[in-house]
Every structure is written in structure tokens, then in C-alpha cells.
Amino acid sequence: MSDNLIISARDVKKTYNTGKVIVPALRGLDLEVRRGEMVAIMGPSGCGKTTLLNTLSGLDSIDSGLVEIDGQDLFKMSDRQRTAYRAANMGFVFQFYNLLPVLSAAENVEMPLLLDRSQRLKPKQARQMALDALEAVGLADQAYQRPAELSGGQRQRVTIARALVNRPAIVWADEPTGDLDSKTSQDIVDLMRKLNRENGQTFVIVTHSEEIGLQCDRIVWMRDGMVETPAGNLAPIPVPTPASANGAAVAVPAI
User: Fold this and answer.
1) Which of 52, 69, 205, 245 has its CA 20 to 30 Å from the CA of residue 172?
2) Secondary structure of 67-92 in HEC code, one letter for each residue
3) Edge-to-edge strands, sheet with 202-206
4) Running DSSP on this structure, what letter comes out for residue 6?
5) Rounded to the nearest 10 degrees, what angle do helices 182-199 and 152-164 cross at?
6) How far apart are CA 249 and CA 96, in angstroms?
């Protein structure tokens, strides 16, 4: 695996057996992602985008193939090792937030730190890290509000803070703006782009929105459980410059 690659998947296959029908979700998928890239995974509904995210992150198993994250073979690890590796090296942003309603924003953000025994953090340390993460996403003044007291965009910012609190190398985002209006969606994309550039973290974003895809470094197109662009095609796909929510041009960076 090249030193510049952080994600490498080779001939990955995944089939779901519902009991009545066998669904081949991934059919020999190949994919490479460079360290520090912000990549959009796009394609029609049912093409395997979320399955790709779940398998490459180790949330779900694969039937066959190879998945390496930063040179580590993910599926040579035991379930416990994979869970620990994921907790230490990955963050997740979901469409519907997955925040615990009885906890404040700060408590939701600090939870991964308290559950990760390898961190061995004291509660005071975890809380400060959570507050720092909330400040980074512009929610320092909402740290002690519960999710019901926050707008949709604010809840998603809490989710992003939770994903980033352990300073992961990779952030996986599954339709992170799917439940938001267009202006709030643009705010969230701008925030992820800012964090990607400032921290050098790799973002892999599953999205139906071509407008979001055009603001990433590269679009990976999927169809029928396979990547349509070649695995080694790491140069950004030439795309027109999109417009932001306020009409100003948004530059698509080359890497």
C-alpha cells in the first residue's frame, strides 16, 4: 500500500441474504483514497453506497476481498480489535444525527471518549475535549443544550463534533445533509471542507447531492455494487465550479 493511500479496497464482495432473496450489494469493488482527500461517493439509490461505507469502515463484514486502512488489514482483526481500531481512528456522521436526547451536546460529544478504554481519560479531560470540539464547529455557546433544543443544523454540528473529538484519521459521512434545508446543508459542507483542510483528515461522504459532490476533491461514481471510475484514478474528475448557497463561486481544489 502506497504511503499516500489511507484506504485501499480490492475485489470487495458483500451479499445480503434476506431469507427470501439474495442481494449482491458489492460485486468486486475496488477503491483507493488518498490521505487528506475529501471524496464524494455518488450513484443511484440501491447501488451500494451505504454498504460501501459500512464495510470499508468495518461496521459490517465482507464476504471476500481486501480492505486496508492505513496499511492495516481490517478483516484480519478480531471483532474486538476492529472495534477498538475504529474508535481510535474513525469518526462517523449520519443523516439522522443519532444523538441521545437525554444528554446535552457536550455529553453526546464526550461519550466516545468515555467509552474508549484505551484513552484512559478522566471525566474532566473528556469534557474539555468535547467543549473544544464544539467550539471548533461553532457551538461553544450551545454546549449544555439538549438535542431537542437545537436546530437541525446545530444537531448535525454536534454530530460532526462527536465524530472529530478523538481526532480520527478518517471521517465517514452517510448523507450528512439529507435532512437539512439547502442553506444549512451548504453550511455543513463548508464546515467539513474547512476541517478537512485545516486538520488534514480524510472525509468519505455518501451523498445523492451533485452540488455537494462537486465541492469535494473527487467524485467516485457507483452503479450496481461496483465503482465505475477505475480504482487507481486518483486525479480529481474535472467538474464545473459549483455555486454556494449565497451565489458566490466555490472553488473546487485540485490535489
Assistant:
1) 245
2) EEECCEEHHHCCHHHHHHHHHHHEEE
3) 90-94, 170-174, 202-206, 38-42, 218-223, 226-227
4) E
5) 20
6) 29
In a structure prediction context, what are the per-residue pLDDT tens digits for the chain, which is 255 residues long?
566 999 999 999 999 988 888 889 999 999 999 999 999 999 998 899 999 999 999 999 999 999 999 999 999 999 999 988 998 899 999 877 789 999 999 999 998 888 777 777 888 999 999 999 999 888 999 999 999 999 988 998 999 999 989 889 999 999 888 878 888 889 889 988 998 999 899 999 999 988 999 999 999 999 999 998 654 445 443 333 333 333 333 333 332
Q: Which of 77, 132, 79, 74 is nearest to 105 (CA)?
A: 132
CB 120 within 8 A of CB 111: no
Phi and psi, residue 65, nearest 5°? 110, -170
DSSP state letter for 5: E
Query: What is the grid cell recorded at 53?
Result: 461505507
Q: What one-character DSSP code corresponds to residue 141?
A: G
Say which residue the cell 459532490 belongs to: 213
CA distance 70 to 241: 31
The amino acid sitting at 127 is: R
Domains parsed from the chain with CATH numbers: 5-98+168-227 (3.40.50.300)
